Amino acid sequence: MSINRLFSIFYLILISSFFSCSNGNKQVTSKNTQYLDSTHLEHWLTPNSNQTIVADLKTKYIEKSDIKASEISIKNDTLSIVSTGWYFYYPFGKVHHVDSLKGIFPKFKLLTVLDTDKTDLSDTITVYRFSYKRNFLKFLQEPDTHKFEIVSGNIVDSTIDLLNGTKVGMSKSAFLDLYFKTNVNKETEKINVVEFITGLEGMWHYYTFRNNRLVSIRFDTDYQVNKN
User: Fold this and answer.
1) Coil, strand or helix at 29
2) Distance in angstroms (rounded) separating the CA atoms of residues 112 and 96
3) HSE-CB of 154 using CA atoms within 13 angstroms
4) Positive or negative, the Cα torsion across 219, 220, 223, 227?
5) Taking CA atoms, which of 16, 37, 45, 65 is between 20 and 30 Å from 104?
């Protein structure tokens, strides 16, 4: 066999091996691409789940003037709702006399104290503190409207009802039914805190749930007085 013929055979074997390896690499690359498409790229192309949930909650929220929402958002395990509805300023009702407050909280002990506005030390304010066991609520009477407004408060007792029937011990589902037209259990299954923020003045409600039961209600405001 001539040297030229041997060289030709060797060349053909070499070319054949090259294309065989090339096809094998293509198959591996194709498999890897398929894996990335189905596992990783799909994750990045999926819409933000919170945005989808919030959009759904907005369509289901009850459009009543006393609780109407202007904004809804979710961060971690907290559902936040901004509202200009009057209910969130007066969750125990619009009260003009301290005796009316005593009637709402018959088990509570009333302590009337003089406090100082931290932004104006010359301004003395009368604060009404109602307390019962581990529960307390602080009010002041607005000089212009004469309405009693909440300064702060914390409720952990199931015998205290808000104006709309909210009370410690109720289920999260029953609580949310007060604000949504249809069941939102699926959308709120990871929610442990519902926060209401008043849209015009600084007041916050915090409703905390444990094992889908309301365990505490806390009120806070931007009044610059002692909150305890």
Assistant:
1) helix
2) 16
3) 5
4) positive
5) 65
